[in-house]
Amino acid sequence: MKHTIGILGGMGPAATADMLEKFVELRSASCDQQHIPLIVSSIPDIPDRTACLLSGGPSPWHYLERYLHMLEDAGAECIVIPCNTAHYWFDDLQAVAKAEMISILDATLSEIPPGMTRVGLLATHATLATGLYQKKAMAQGLSLVQPEEDGQAQVMEAIYALKRGDKSAAQRLLFPQVGQLISRGAQVIIMGCTEIPLIVAGHEQEFGCRFIDSTASLVRAAIRWYESWPDTQVDPFLAQAVCA
Asked: How many Å apart are CA 182 and CA 35, to the nearest integer?
């Protein structure tokens, strides 16, 4: 396999599965052989990132490093992480990685439409508290609109509700907070936790606001990385034979 992408997932498993689906949906392919070669780590024993950063919980670092190298040893040449909060450790992981790595933060912010400068952000407590998006957004001249304290508590509860499989409860908790961000002038909303696209899916049109799905943004960036290699291009005249 050439130019294989490794998915360092498990945070949580539903978000990892969502990324796999998006690799299939977003790659222009007419048969199996034209899809992206992927190696997936979805080992869910990685300690809670928010609990570590805000409550002194166990660190996920050694788990992240171990599974990163496991993916590299299996042949991954590029690593993506479908968890926004885990990007707190992105630079440290990049420093010990042999494979290339693509940041979900950079991929997501690159998809803010031109002219939209007031951006809503739905994310975990830890992603907000550590300023992962804020620092990069300011450098791009963007103004971020975050939920107020009580609303942010509802966002976090919604994320954990989805993790435990209660999507209906997650929607009841999250949707009013989407409305609040829009009422405060958000022109576009970043779904900056990879569980949030799963909560919102199928309801985007109800809000009359554009959403940026951080998982989809990262997948598109990874597909561009893959397609940048000359030997990944399929001659259309040979496609039928290749796919046979």
From this structure: 37
Cβ 101 vs Cβ 8: under 8 Å: no
127, 185: one domain? yes
From the list 31, 52, 78, 83, the catalytic residue is 83
Is residue 83 annotated as part of the catalytic site, yes or no? yes
Q: How far is the C-alpha of 233 from the C-alpha of 89, rounded, in Å? A: 33
Residues 183 and 195 in one domain: yes
Please check whether residues 119 and 197 belong to one and the same domain.
yes
Q: Is 225 left (phi over 0), alpha (psi -120 to 50) or beta?
A: alpha
Regarding whether 158 and 68 lie in a shared domain, the answer is no
pLDDT in the model for residue 239? 56
Instruction: Based on the residue annotation, tell me whether 193 is a catalytic residue of this protein.
Output: yes
| Mean pLDDT per 10-residue interval, the chain, length 244 residues | 94 98 96 96 98 98 98 98 98 98 98 96 98 96 97 98 98 98 97 98 95 98 96 64 60
Q: What pLDDT is attached to residue 2?
A: 84
Whether residues 12 and 77 fall in one domain:
yes
Domain span at residue 227 reads: 5-104+218-243
User: At which residue do the structure tokens 């966002």 appear?
Assistant: 155
Which of 31, 78, 193, 243 does the annotation list as catalytic?
193
- Tell me the β-bridge partners of 211: 189
